[in-house]
Design a protein that fits this description.
The structure is a single chain. This protein has about 550 residues and is an alpha/beta fold. It has 3 domains: about 1-80, Arginyl tRNA synthetase N-terminal domain (Gyrase A, domain 2, 2-Layer Sandwich); about 115-365, Rossmann fold, CATH 3.40.50; about 385-550, Isoleucyl-tRNA Synthetase, Domain 1. About 55% of the residues lie in helices and about 10% in strands. It contains 20 helices and 13 strands. The strands form 4 sheets. Strands 6-5-4-10-11 form a 5-stranded parallel beta sheet, sandwiched between helices. A 3-stranded antiparallel beta sheet has the order 1-3-2. It has a 3-stranded antiparallel beta sheet with strand order 7-8-9. Helix 6 (about 125-145) crosses helix 15, helix 7 (about 160-170) packs across helix 9 and helix 11 (about 250-270) packs across helix 12. The two termini are about 35 Å apart.
Amino acid sequence: MKDKVIEILRFIKLSDKEIESLIEVPKNSDMGDYAFPCFILAKKMKKSPSEIAKDISSKIKKSDYFEKVGAVNAYVNFFVNRKKLALDVINSVLKNKDNYGSGKYGNDKVMIEFSQANTHKAFHVGHIRGTALGESISRIMEFSGDKVTRVNYQGDIGMHVAKWLWCYTKYHAREKIENNESWFAKIYVEAVRRLNGAPELEREVEEINRKLDERKDKKILELWKETRKICLKSLESIYQELDTKFDAYFFESEVEKKGKEIAHELVKKKIAKFSEGATIIDFAEHGFPELAVWVLLRKDGTVLYSSKDIALAERKFKEFKIDKAIYVVGSEQGLHIRQLFKTLELIKFGNGNLVYVPVTLVRLPTGKMSSRTGDNVLYADFRDELLEEAFEEINKRYPEINDKEKEKRSRAIALASIKYTMLKQDTNKVIVFDKKEALRFEGDTGPYLLYTYARARSILRKAKKAKKDIKIKEINEHEKALVTELSNFPEVVKHSYEQLSPNLIANYAYQLAQVFNEFYHNSKVIGSEEEGFRLALVDATSQVIKNALYLLGIPILDEM
């Protein structure tokens, strides 16, 4: 409908973008569904805004899309033809189905890097946010026309691995290596604790890190390969549970050699330099003192994240021929990412098509989590807690269904509670995850959205035969509100795509669910005179909720 308003107003000689930016939605529906303010035209046309509004409204031709267009003070008010809008929206949703809301806003080859869970450390609750966010952004960009390659850059080498190997060989060598995430995490935490304030032990870790870097110590190399394989297999099972599948995996071990070569090249180009034995970039010398100093190689020549990230960026663009690289990375890495982007700019690589989506922390009511101190909640333990509580809730509501079905529903509800909570807030905001709040079937939660979808599908199942005739006599306020909400979905998707913000879709889904439930409580569907129209409206609503949940990476349930 907004597009129709823009189309009608093109004769006033403003661009479509200018008109769109000015259009308002009146708080009072008595003032119309859309309003165009004329203040900006007063100076140009040398008339008062109210006179301009009258002139514009008098020149507007009759349209099937609007019941009335009139001037009120300095505004041109548009009253939507409710029946026309309802039929157009419902037909569009039911015709396009899973594609309703999609668009061709983009046409790029985009690589989205996200999750970045390291081997030999815990995959904890905080990792879920980056994983859910990256997957959702990937789906939104695909839905909007881009060709997306999902990639995961995992730290399978470096000091954190050296610490784990050191602790295992020094204190646990007689223990059998367990295929257990908790066991791996425990050894890493122990390593950090033992190394705290012990420089002589740190030197032992540095020696293991050097051996890993050189790949010459057979014993260390074999232990690394064995434990790396177990860790990667464990991570893959988690990604399957989170409904995320990567198109390519990058590993630090693969870009280590190239990173070292690039560091040496940067010295030759006088972008980097030697300082006290280390290889660094001093950004102050390049006119960017706020970026401080970036260390590329340690004194002993071992490679740091910095050099590896430069090598990885080069590989992304050259090997995959991408147009844009998106980094979904923790906000605590903000300076590192800015240093990376500036370095790529200095070497004239990537054409500036680099985007950073920061992921802020997830806290529990008990406080911050950390894989270094062990003060975290493992994903597996967290998932099992949610599954148990979801199962109990399903058992209370539907004791008659079998355990297999209860487990299926519990998994969907647990995943919805996790992902929705992670995605409904802006990425710049810290999340405090309260599991009891997240699992509620009412309010701003994932289970509430699943429940609303299931309710809509239940209504359709109960209808003996859907009436094809959806002629409309009158549209009440609840029906109008629901139709309007459905019509907004494509625009919400567009804005979410432009801003890389899944929270816009999450918030929209909740609002749509609220409007639908108000409609359902106030408008009889089955057996009413408007049954055909209302069933079509229910069907369209369930489809749009399904589409929104898909973009959030949340599975649907036909029955709760």
